[in-house]
Amino acid sequence: MALQPSLRPLIIAGTADAPHTLDVFLDYVCPYSAKMSAAIDSVLVPLLSAGGKYHSRVKVVFRPQVQPWHATSTLVHEAGLAVARVSPEQFWPFSLALFKRQGEYFDIPSSTLTPLQIRDKLAALAAEVIPANATGSFADLLALKSSPNGGNAVTDDLKYTIKFSRQNGIHVSPTVLWDGLVANEISSSWGGKEWMEFLAAKVAV
Q1: Is 15 left (phi over 0), alpha (psi -120 to 50) or beta?
Q2: How many angstroms separate the Cα of 135 from the Cα of each of 15, 67, 83, 101?
Q3: 204 pLDDT band (50/70/90 cuts)?
Q4: Could you read off the pLDDT of 130-187 as tens digits, one per residue?
Q5: pLDDT at 6
Q6: For the Thioredoxin-like fold domain, which residue ranges apply (predicted)?
Q7: Beta carbons of 25 and 61 less than 8 angstroms apart
Q8: First vs last Cα of the chain: how many Å apart?
Q9: Distance of CA 32 to CAs 5, 99, 189, 196, Å?
Q10: Contact, 40 vs 198, CB < 8 A?
C-alpha cells in the first residue's frame, strides 16, 4: 500500500519495494496491539530483515489506529508520528517502548493529567529513545499552533492515518491487511508457528 513521504518510517520491517504488504493497524493504548507488536518484533522483523527467509518479499507497515474512546489515543499517536519525523530510524524502537509503558496512558492513570502534562510524559519517553539533538524538534512538532484550533505540526499526518483507516473500514485494533484485504485469521495471540505457516502459504520464496 502507498505511503506519503513523511510516513515512510512506518515501514517497520522488510523493504519498501517488497511485493507483499502487511498493513497492521495498531493503537498504542490497546493491550492486544501491544501483544501483536511484540510478535512483530520477535518473529516478523528477523524474517523480513537482511538474511531472513522473506527478506525483500514482504514488508510490514504500522498503521496508527486512533481509537477515540481512549482519551489519550490521539496524543500518543501524535508522539509516534513526531518521532517518525525527527528520528525515522527510531520510530519502531519508540513504538515498542510506548507499548511497554502503555499502562501509564490508560484511561484511569491519565484521567488527572492535562494534555500538556501527557505530552511532557511522552517527550520524556521519547528522550530515552531518540538522539539528544532531536528532542527539541520533537517538542516543537507537538507544540500547539497559534490558531485556537489549529492542532500541531503532525496534525496533517494524523489526519492522513485516520482517513486511511476510515476509508478501509477499519474499526478495531489490531486489524491486519494482507495485500490490501483484511486477513481476519491473523490474531494478536499468534507466535512464530502461526506466522511461519501464514507466510509459507502466502509467499512464494
Answers
A1: beta
A2: 28, 26, 9, 19
A3: confident
A4: 999 999 999 999 999 888 999 999 999 999 999 999 999 999 999 999 999 999 999 9
A5: 87
A6: 11-183
A7: no
A8: 21
A9: 28, 10, 8, 20
A10: no
What's the angle, vertex CA 122, arms to CA 32 and CA 86, rounded to 5? 100
Residue type (1 letter), 41: D
**What is the four-CA torsion angle of 158, 160, 161, 164, rounded to 10 degrees?**
160
Closest CA to 67 of 165, 144, 155: 165
- Name the amino acid, one letter, at 157: D
Query: Phi and psi dihedrals of 112, rounded to 5?
Result: -100, 5
Pairing of strands 58-64, 20-26: parallel
Residues 7-19 pLDDT 10s: 999 999 999 999 9
Q: At what angle do helices 135-142 and 73-86 cross, to 10 degrees?
A: 140
